[in-house]
Write a structure and sequence with these properties.
- The protein is an alpha/beta fold and 362 residues long.
- It folds into two domains: 159 residues, DHBP synthase (Alpha-Beta Complex), CATH 3.90.870; 153 residues, Rossmann fold (3-Layer(aba) Sandwich).
- It contains 15 helices and 13 strands.
- The strands form two sheets. Strands 7-8-9-11-10-12-13 form a seven-stranded mixed beta sheet, sandwiched between helices.
């Protein structure tokens, strides 16, 4: 019997190692490297990586634009980590929310030519780990040999591709009746992704017929809005209004997807909030951190709906992108149901940006 790790297991282990600041080995189809999350670099780990050879700081093209670093590889830039580069300078370069305590220094020299496949894989891994999209990369001749010699986790490019597909494949783990304020006839379904990422939930109210479009809300987790009543967004009011509307109709489903901060995680969302306090809007803050406007994967919601037997929904959303994503993933949207709630003096700019830059219908 083979005890070797499957592709999703290998990627899940690599993500976990990166989150604790440990390096991992990657093999991007022959471009092998040792990588670690830039935000967690220590002097000892940096010196150990320098001992392997040339070290690059891989950042997304979004962050490169902020640093005025040339992204010769298109979607990323490879900043040269020279002998004078310290962990503090690296952290300042990748985390703009630290500008007051760690002023950013430049200019930054970037590499041109050569293979950036390992750097690209490294950025995908740290983003999946909900870390800043920045990684230290040290090329090695053989990833498997290096992983074995150094006791590191190995991740391969082809395995990452499998993991991306697996992110939309979920297993139903458990279901139980949970009486709610809006309806005593409710059940909570728990789904677990095959790639070891966060679990997601479906709150089913009543007995929505599978052959008709079900009233549905795809709600992304928002710790600040949903749990502690933040006024910076409209998430909490949308969650409660959606549940109330489903309860009033007597049947429907609310999907609670653990994709905090438009998919960047709570820590990075707080970094974005700090940048917003400095004058940047929601989209600008994400870009300065190195992320895209929206990093969520709505295929997850479509897979949950299909696994529950739904093929058509009346989708409660102000975001046309969700409608498009559902249709592309095989769930038709018979009707878009507006959900305009939660406006207050603290989030008017946030909502205006969602309308102007993200196309939300508010």
């Amino acid at each position: 019997m083979s005890l070797s790790l499957s592709a999703p297991e290998m990627i899940a282990r690599a993500r976990a190692d990166l989150r604790i600041g440990a390096p991992v080995c990657v093999d991007a189809g022959g471009a092998a490297a040792v990588v670690m999350a830039a935000e967690l670099v220590t002097p000892e780990r940096l010196e150990a990586m320098r001992a392997l050879g040339d070290v690059d700081l891989a950042i997304s093209d979004r962050r490169a634009g902020t640093l005025k670093a040339r992204a010769y590889d298109g979607d990323l830039a490879r900043i040269v980590v020279d002998a004078a580069t310290t962990p503090a300078r690296i952290r300042a370069a990748v985390d703009p929310s630290r500008a007051l305590t760690d002023p950013m220094a430049g200019p930054f020299a970037t590499r041109r030519g050569g293979d950036a496949a390992a750097h690209r894989l490294a950025l995908r891994l740290v983003k999946q780990a909900r870390l800043l999209p920045a990684a230290l990369v040290a090329p090695v001749p053989d990833a498997a040999a290096a992983a074995s010699a150094m006791g590191l986790t190995l991740a391969r490019l082809q395995d990452m591709a499998l993991s991306d597909d697996a992110a939309a494949r979920l297993s139903a783990v458990s279901v139980a009746r949970v009486p709610l304020e809006v309806s005593e006839d409710a059940r909570v379904h728990v789904f677990r992704p095959a790639d070891g990422a966060e679990e997601h939930y479906a709150i089913e109210i009543g007995q929505p017929p599978r052959g008709e479009p079900a009233l549905c809300r795809l709600h992304s987790a928002c710790f600040t809005g949903d749990l502690i009543g933040s006024l910076k967004c409209d998430c909490g009011p949308q969650l409660r209004a959606a549940l109330a509307q489903i309860g009033a109709e007597g049947a429907g489903v609310l999907l609670y997807l653990n994709q905090e901060g438009r998919g960047i995680g709570l820590a990075n969302k707080m970094r974005a909030y700090a940048l917003q306090d400095a004058g940047f809007d929601t989209v600008e803050a994400n870009h300065r951190l190195g992320f895209e406007d929206d990093e969520r994967d709505f295929r997850i919601g479509a897979e949950i709906l299909k696994s529950l037997g739904f093929s058509s929904v009346r989708l409660m959303t102000n975001n046309p992108g969700k409608v498009v994503a559902m249709a592309a993933a095989g769930v038709s949207v018979a009707e878009r149901v507006p959900l305009r709630v939660g406006v207050n003096p603290h989030n008017t700019r946030y909502l205006a940006v969602k309308a102007a830059k993200s196309g939300h219908l508010l």
